[in-house]
Each structure stands twice: as structure tokens, then as C-alpha cells.
Write a structure and sequence with these properties.
- With about 450 residues, the chain is α/β, with parallel strands linked by helices.
- About 35% of the residues lie in helices and about 20% in strands.
- β1, α1 (about 15-25) and β2 (about 30-35) form a beta-alpha-beta unit.
- α6 crosses α12.
- The mean pLDDT is about 95.
- It is found in: Cytoplasm.
- One of its GO terms (biological process) is cell wall organization.
- Pathway: Cell wall biogenesis; peptidoglycan biosynthesis.
Amino acid sequence: MGEKRYIVILGAGESGVGAALLAQKEGFEVFVSDFGPIADHYKKDLENAAISFEENGHSEERILKASEVVKSPGIPDKAPIIKKLTEKNIPILSEIEFAGRYSNAKMICITGSNGKSTTTMLTYHILKNAGLNIGLAGNIGKSFARQVAFENFDFYVLEISSFMLDNMYQFRADIAVLLNITPDHLDRYDYKMENYADSKFRIIQNQKPGDVFIYCADDAEIQKGLLKHQINADTYPFSIEKALDNGAYLQDDQIIINLHHKNQESFTMSIKDLALQGKHNIYNSMASGIVAKVLELRNETIRESMGSFTNIEHRLEHVARISGIDFINDSKATNVNSTWYALESMPGEVVLILGGVDKGNDYDMLKDLVKSKVKAIVCLGKDNKRIHEAFEDDVEVIVNTFSANEAVQIAYHLATKGNTVLLSPACASFDLFKNYEDRGNQFKKAVKEL
């Protein structure tokens, strides 16, 4: 066999450690390097497997000897170590690309700027309820690589971010879903929308006739991309604006799904019976419904699952109703578009908690909704100048706060019966919190202490 192939894993979070365990199982010599500290439970995983690793810095010499490198999606291309690897033409892969080599399962891959997690979880819920032997991975839960190493699933539902797609080359989605493309992470794409859109369209690379591509027909950026990219798969669009011959559409508050390639009976369901409410969730439900129909599940099964699903934590999560005021935790909204979706689905007047680390946000798209729905903005972040500048003409009250507790107390005093207090920050969380989960959990704790 000659000597072992030597692989380096950059980043020792869930995806990196999963990739390391799989690489070892597949006979590679493995070295894991993290520029920051490694969490104790991941160190334990690596120690138990006798995989060598380092933290708080990179040993360049050891890394640059690799035959290939699996990198965490969070490491940008402009990181010095990535530049050096690129100069030496050492292949850099995402964990999904690497793990995909070692699995024969059918891949259902979901991407988009917003709604990925919800649609991935809903799709998984429907397929699991139908009795499929299915894994859930990507941006959610246990890493894909770890599951490929230790489980044996026939199907995977994978939530795929643009950062993952950027380092995917041979991987093929049997079913690809593209929900929407709106400005996000543009700092990683030279501030060019078309670069970001091209990255999202990588979800269809390597697809063949007989594979499936499901997309939103109402999204302007997707429409542009369809003209530019060759589609080999069977296509099923979904729309709430127009009736479609093949795919999903809305008519008289009913979702209707027709798949003519498949000669199946139509699927119909009233949007009032969906577990997930709000316009954007009609899209998410349509996308999941088409996947289920492509896999020829029974209409009854699909309907029942779409009615019984409970949403993921920190995404439009109802926390409590206190004195007639609803408190909603949407901490996962780390971009302006997510906040737009959240506001759009709120009934009545809102006290909006916004702010954190601003990724070059353009707040213009929120202006109309803020004018019509928001009675006060509570800023939760170290630097709230841009929020004040964006909305000072649209809202009477804008207050600064520096903790979840303070934000909740003030929002409660500003709200009246029938209002909603919505935490939907439109920003990253790491100025005051560890991550969006920490921000959401502190918000929920503060609400429960009212």
C-alpha cells in the first residue's frame, strides 16, 4: 500500500472533529490544528481516538505537508494559512465534500440565505415520520462526517451554507433545494452579490438528468442565476405569486403540489393547518412538500407531518405571553433579511430588539415594515450608531441596552397588551454573547424572570 495518505483538518469544532474521526477510520494519517482553543469534549474525542492535534495556533510546517486539507466553513479564504495552502496547490475541501466520498446514501441538500434550518428540520421530520432511514447533518446537529463514520443511513438531509459550497467540488446532491438568495456574508464575497449567488448555485453542480432541483420561482436572484447556470436535473419551482404547472403554488390559501414527471396525484393542504405560520414558512413548507412528493410519500403522511412540526429553537420561538404581551425569540436572525421575514410574519404592533455585530448591514429593506409595525426599537449591542441613523425618522423611541436582562425589562415597559416583543437582531452576537444560542437563552431566561 505504500505510506499512509496524510490529511490535515483545520478547525476542531463539530465538523472538524467528525472529519478527523472519519479520516482515521478510512486509513489516513490525521493531524488536527485549531487557531483557537479546542472545547474539552472535542479534545476528549480526539484523545480517545489517538488523533494528534494542536490548539491556539497553526504549525505551518506540519500543515503544508498535507496531501489535502479539510477546513472548517468558518475559516475565511484570506486567513494566512489558507493563502499558503493555495499557493502550494494543496487541495482544500469542506467536510461535506470529504464525507460524501464515503457514503452511498441519497443526498437531499438545502441551501438559501434564510429558512435553511427550518426547511431542513421540517424535511427531516416528514421523511423520518414516513419511516425512512435518514440522517440529519450539515449546519445542524452531529457532523455529516461523524455520521458517515459511525451510522448507516439510506438518506441524509443536509443544511448547506455557501461557505461549505465554496469548498465542494465532486459532491453531488440527488435532490437540491435553493430557497432564496438575499444579501448576506457579502464581506466573504468581495461585496459582490453575483459572487454570493454563484456560490449558492454550486448546490446543483454535478447533478445529472434524473436528479432533482427545487427552487423558489419568486426570487429575483434565483431567476437571474437560472439564466446563467446549466440545469441538468428535473426542476420543480415553487411560488406563492403565480400558479405553476409543475411544482408547488398557492391558490385560495391552499398549497397545491403537482409533479408531472412523476404522474402522482396532486397534494393540497390549507395554510391554516400548517404548523409553521407566516409567509416565509409557506415557502419552506412548499419546498419540503416537493421533496416528500419526489420521494413518493403518501399525501396523508406529508399533511400530518406538516401539521405537527415544532420549529427549531431560536427561530421565531414563542417564549411566553405576559400581561397580554407575546415574547418571541428569533436570535438566529443574524442578517437583515431574516429580521424582515420575522417582522413580516408578526401580527399587530412590535417592540423590536435589534443589534450586535453589524456585517455591513443595509437596513433600507426594513424601513417600510418598521414604519408600519414597530412602535419602539431596543438596541442590544456595544455599538448601535447605525441602527439609530437608519431608523431615527421612522420610530419614536430607540433605546440602548447592554444585556439581555436590560433589553427585556425595557421592552416589557414599552409594550402594551396585544403587542409582541421580538428579539430579531439582524446582527451577529459575539460583541456581548458567545453565539446566537447564548443570546437567545439569556433572552428567554430574562423573559421568565419578569
